[in-house]
């Protein structure tokens, strides 16, 4: 059954356009909140953190939840 397929669920939860938009928004928000002339942390580094860790882990939690709910 498709609903029990972890990889398929992950694929269904993945929207590359939305993820790229979030990544850009995170970087822009950090640049807008800058008070010092020098960044304490590079905004693109935080954007990469979101795309490489936060978004994938969030999807993994969603998949685990769905698999448990459908069990």
UniProtKB/TrEMBL annotation:
<dbReference type="GO" id="GO:0009073">
    <property type="term" value="P:aromatic amino acid family biosynthetic process"/>
</dbReference>
<dbReference type="InterPro" id="IPR008238">
    <property type="entry name" value="Chorismate_mutase_AroQ_euk"/>
</dbReference>
<dbReference type="InterPro" id="IPR036263">
    <property type="entry name" value="Chorismate_II_sf"/>
</dbReference>
<keyword id="KW-0413">Isomerase</keyword>
<dbReference type="GO" id="GO:0046417">
    <property type="term" value="P:chorismate metabolic process"/>
</dbReference>
<protein>
    <recommendedName>
        <fullName>chorismate mutase</fullName>
        <ecNumber>5.4.99.5</ecNumber>
    </recommendedName>
</protein>
<dbReference type="GO" id="GO:0004106">
    <property type="term" value="F:chorismate mutase activity"/>
</dbReference>
<dbReference type="InterPro" id="IPR037039">
    <property type="entry name" value="CM_AroQ_sf_eucaryotic"/>
</dbReference>
